[in-house]
């Protein structure tokens, strides 16, 4: 970089930072056209908007492109989510495109070697395998799929192949949030939005570490404090984290303690008679699980019955179950009983990766409903997501094994009929049988065909199950006896999953393609392709369409609509079909726009209305439902179910849960009995293992491990250990140990009382490091409704590496 | 100054090996430092920032301070980032803009 240019960029960086501090109060959000007003203007440098590629917060960035390469990133001042600021991962997001080991050619495994092949051959191989056995094909996707990518995959599988074996990695991270929302409100996704963080008096983080995982959101709260506002942060967790450092109160609970704590708060609200009687009488029902076959619907119970069941969850009993002192439970009860303050609850994986995930999600919603801390800015139960489009693609497009777009499910005939009509398919094209959820899908893929393993070909896009599945030794690691199985992986870099792949497809990433995401607050975001992908890397959406067209050419009836036309056909203004299945013609039109306009049709049934594509081009995202106004403009919704903001609430109702599962406009306050975790420490495996993430790396590290500053800051996974446990076991700082569970092992260096501080009897391991697969040890036990596995608690022992073959180290409980 | 040097020299994670040592990139970043209270109440931390030659200090208002880091290597950039985060009173460090060198390649 020459010195003049460098000097200019320095000035521009100072102007950008300076504009963020001007005023000293909360950061302003400027008009969209002002978002780039103080960014550098250089010959050949252009700026365009995109959502960040990492977490579910949905920060917008301005991407600076010069000579076909991303050269600068700026926080987007026109974005309400991040108001011009980014976290350390956002700071590096431009670099994710430029790791030296990008995959650039299709690779086919031949006699244990990967050899380069042409795209035509790759597409033909895939299509032939599907054509020969369409019902044993599975498509494993992601919350990083863009909305059009997920929609195309959904249509291809459920509409085209009549095969529901499509599921996303989001099954592993937020499906319990989905079932919690469905059980409570009859419809998925949060009622509130990020504004709750700006308005709450109390923020409760339930097994959640937003200081590291959603730092820009957390900074909205700490920023308020720095302006002199009082915000009480209560951190409920199983280990101390950076969020604890900022917390006013830290309540350390035993694993599954959250269930007892939420029951204890509800017990106190009833016992102290300070629950919100008016809100409950007008807007809520009580619900319990059926004794025989529990469902998400549950059965109605009276308030009297609810009081009876909750009666035993006294603060003292909750202390026994959760480890949190009774007086702290009383403190929470008093806070929720105070109607003059506003309380926001935040959660993410801690409550979702839980064998009682649906229950604990429902119970925390219940605490807010019972106390009336709901539906006003600052009063909200809010789940966060870890992936940029877990909401937009997985939950809204419905790329789950049981779901159809727009909140529909395959088991309802009228829902299948809607989809067949929207897609112009023959009646009966969509199967009524739910497909395999993630754990089942991999169980059937890794089980020999002769033993009933009836998934023989799997296509994986935009995710890394070889690192993220629980109990990897059972669900992924072996190919022995599976010679007839075929794993296809679309990826940007080599991963633990591509290591076992039979065919690897090089994928375009982020601004190398058009895209749309949906973030944690119902905000749908759009961006355009800005740079070319390297080599022969191509869009995932194109891959799906190309495979579909190859099947169409081979005569697969499912790839034809009722008129005999290709199901993804797009025509030009003269009515001539554009051959988008040929990559050289893929960008002859905006395929994303065509798919999104088709998808919009699905969105109104559950009042998740979306605006036309072009409205998202202009905006920094819009929160659904987005409804057209009399003047033709499109208005987003910040607060669902609240009359003051939600256009679908009947006037005069104040609150209305218009998708209530009891069909009476009411939400459900659930009772669930506490149950212990499925595996507990014992004499052989005396310690709890919790897994999770760190600030520097995003999920499996496929992207962030290619960013040297981040990787240098956190170069390897580790096991966090309590100093007393380490001392008792004669383990030194940095010493290599082996974590052993009943399912597998993982060798790691020890970080005693590191960044997070686990209590005695507990260890924590992050899962970002592909060289240290902690999921060899985790448990595939999952929630009965969401099918989401519990990565947060299983029993392990810690063995000094030098003593692996000797007796396990005894760690006092 | 001695304290500051110690902080700069302190690796983020002393027990772990550094996997990548190549110094290639020269990012320029505009950052926003947020203090627990008004910037004027954290003169020691601001003075410490002034003593880092790669940092230019810009406008401040309330608890926020604009800075620009212009370092010669990515490693140095990360060290400075860590140092700033660890200064007393600093509760948040956010990014407003970053420009990469054309040879900014990792791995």
List the defining traits of the structure above.
heterodimer; A: 813 residues; alpha/beta; N-terminal domain of TfIIb; Rossmann fold; Dimethylsulfoxide Reductase, domain 2; 4 domains; seven-stranded mixed β-sheet; six-stranded mixed beta barrel; 29% helix; disordered C terminus; B: 107 residues; alpha+beta; Alpha-Beta Plaits; four-stranded antiparallel β-sheet; 27% helix; disordered N terminus
Architecture overview:
Chain A is of the alpha/beta class and 813 residues long. Chain A has 4 domains: 3-86, ADC-like domains (N-terminal domain of TfIIb), CATH 2.20.25; 107-170 and 404-512 and 532-586, 3-Layer(aba) Sandwich (Rossmann fold); 175-383, Dimethylsulfoxide Reductase, domain 2; 687-803, Barwin-like endoglucanases (Beta Barrel), CATH 2.40.40. Helices cover 29% and strands 17% of the residues of chain A. Chain A has a 7-stranded mixed beta sheet with strand order 5-4-19-18-17-6-7, sandwiched between helices. The longest helix of chain A is centred in the N-terminal third of the chain and has 19 residues, at 3-21. The N and C termini of chain A lie far apart (58 Å). Chain B has one domain (25-99): Lrp/AsnC effector binding domain/regulation of amino acid metabolism (RAM) domain (Alpha-Beta Plaits). In chain B, helix 1 crosses helix 3 (74-86). Chain B is an alpha+beta fold. Chain B is built from 3 helices and 4 strands. A 4-stranded antiparallel beta sheet of chain B has the order 2-3-1-4, covered by helices on one side. Chain B has helices at residues 2-9, 43-50, 74-86, and strands at residues 28-35, 55-61, 64-70, 90-99. Chain B is globular, with a radius of gyration of 14 Å. At the A-B interface, helix 1, strand 3, helix 2, helix 8 and helix 26 of A face strand 1, strand 2, strand 3, helix 3 and strand 4 of B.
